[in-house]
Design brief:
- With 210 residues, this protein is α+β, with helices and mostly antiparallel strands.
- Helices cover 18% and strands 40% of the residues.
- The chain is built from four helices and 14 strands.
- A hairpin with a 2-residue loop joins β6 (102-105) and β7 (108-111).
- The longest helix is centred in the N-terminal third of the chain and has 18 residues, at 18-35.
- The protein is globular, with a radius of gyration of 20 Å.
- Pfam families: OB_MalK.
- GO terms for molecular function: ATP hydrolysis activity.
Length: 210
């Protein structure tokens, strides 16, 4: 019987349907932990990477962007690419001008380091945006109701707010909402930000600055 030191798996679940993919994913993870054999697992599916990996390497165009635990990839992405790639729905990435030591999102000011330039990229995950009386307004376009969650998709009313990772036509602000009381498409909502979960990136290099 062979006793390999390393297993290599290259997209092993790519041809399975969604339900079977989930079941097989958990079986592979349980088997790996039982055998205790190092496994290198290649995938384009971030859910597979985040749920199965002890450490995850994120690559772009063949270049290593970050190697870390799944939790740190989610909470402390080292650049804009990792921030936008990890997480579903994706992180909101907005370009904001800096004035008086704060990045301005509409009427909302977010403290930035003194090393920040004239503008920064502000990253906020959908759960980091919260309904508020002051902040910036979003015109609701689509509401996805998923039972335990609801996600609101819309455009910033303030046209000065620009998306850092896509065009204005394709860009949408994504907000995780109370599933028992979501807004309707066509409404305008005001959202604030939980300052503890804001990510700041250099607007030119994309590197993390906070």
């Amino acid at each position: 019987m062979r006793e390999p030191q390393v297993f290599l798996m290259d997209e092993p679940l790519s041809n399975l349907d969604a339900k079977l993919r989930v079941a097989t994913r958990t079986q592979i993870a349980a088997l790996q932990r039982r055998l205790g054999i190092t496994t290198v697992y290649v995938t384009h599916d971030q859910v597979e990477a985040m749920t199965m990996g002890d450490r995850v390497a994120v690559l772009k165009d063949g270049l290593l962007q970050q190697v870390d635990t799944p939790r740190n990839l989610y909470e402390k992405p080292q650049n804009v690419f990792v921030a936008g790639f990890i997480g579903s729905p994706a992180m909101n990435l907005l370009t904001a001008s800096v004035s008086g030591g704060k990045a301005m999102l509409g009427n909302l000011g977010i403290a930035v380091p003194s090393s920040a330039g004239a503008s920064v990229t502000v990253g906020i995950r959908p759960e980091g945006l919260i309904p508020a009386s002051t902040g910036f307004e979003v015109a609701v376009e689509v509401v996805e109701e998923l039972g335990s969650d609801a996600y609101v998709y819309g455009k910033p009313v303030d046209k000065a707010l620009k998306f850092a990772n896509t065009t204005e036509e394709l860009g949408q602000v994504i907000i995780r909402w109370d599933p028992k009381n979501p807004p309707k498409a066509g409404q305008t909502v005001t959202v604030g930000v939980n300052p503890d979960v804001v990510h700041l990136f250099d607007a030119t290099s994309g590197a993390r600055i906070n």
